[in-house]
Amino acid sequence: MHPRIVAARPKSGLTLELTFADGSRGSVDLSPWITASTGVFAALRDPAVFAQVAVDRDAGTIVWPNGADLDPDVLYELAHGVRSPG
Fold it and tell me: What's the CA gap between 6 and 75, in Å, rounded?
């Protein structure tokens, strides 16, 4: 299990800058999930909705008001170049 997310900041496009509990940071491009989605992630194509990202401290991951969330271990690996999206 990787460190949990403690902060998230929207950047350009569908990218977030994430800060993890171990102090590390990384950017994650979420466009592979959002642009291909017809489900809960489709709403995040709207920049105003995407910008509503928040950190759920109990789960240690990012969430949106519409219920969308992502696995924090996957996000850690993407932010640190361990795996490719998709």
Answer: 12
d(CA 16, CA 8): 6
pTM (2 d.p.): 0.89
- Domain assignments of the chain as residue spans, ordered by start: 5-79
> What tens digit of pLDDT does each residue of 23-63 get?
999 999 999 889 988 889 999 999 999 999 999 999 999 99
Buried b (16+ CB within 10 A) or exposed e, 64-73: beeebbbebb
Task: Write down the architecture of domain 5-79 according to CATH.
Answer: 2-Layer Sandwich (3.30)
Cross-strand partners of 18: 8, 26
Name the DSSP letter for residue 4.
Answer: P
DSSP, collapsed to helix, strand or coil, labels residue 23 as coil
Residue 70 token pair: 């992502």
